Amino acid sequence: MIKKRLTVQGFAMPDHLHEAGQLIAKLSPYVSAGKIQYRAHVLKGLTSAIDGLPLFFSGKNEGKLMVEL
């Protein structure tokens, strides 16, 4: 990085929350048309959250890891 004089800059999502409505409006038609797909790994019930913790840390979940209450 130093040799090539690269700059690395991150961002935090809360910095852009004011733009969330525009993003949803822009991407929703693509999701509805099936052009953008997402995966969700849903665990049912609070007790299954404990079983899902190792999935979270190992990366073995398939898509966004969520617990349905």
Structure overview:
The chain has 69 residues and is α+β, with helices and mostly antiparallel strands. It has a two-stranded parallel sheet with strand order 1-2. It has a domain at 38-69. Helices cover 36% and strands 14% of the residues. The protein is extended and about 50 Å long. The chain has helices at residues 20-32, 47-58, and strands spanning 40-44, 64-68. It has 2 helices and 2 strands; from the N terminus they run αβαβ. The model has no long low-confidence stretch (mean pLDDT 89). The longest helix is centred in the middle third of the chain and has 13 residues, at 20-32. Strand 1 (40-44), helix 2 (47-58) and strand 2 (64-68) form a beta-alpha-beta unit. This is NADPH-dependent curcumin reductase CurA. It comes from Simiduia aestuariiviva.
Strand line-up of the largest beta sheet? 1-2
Largest beta-sheet details: 2 strands, parallel
Helix content: 25-40%
Radius of gyration: 18 Å
- Termini separation comes to 45 Å
Question: How many DSSP helices?
Answer: 2
Structural class based on helices, strands and sheet pairing: alpha+beta
Shape, please?
extended
Low-confidence stretches: none
Mean pLDDT: 89
Name the beta content range.
Answer: 5-15%
Helix-strand sequence: HEHE
Beta-strand segment tally: 2
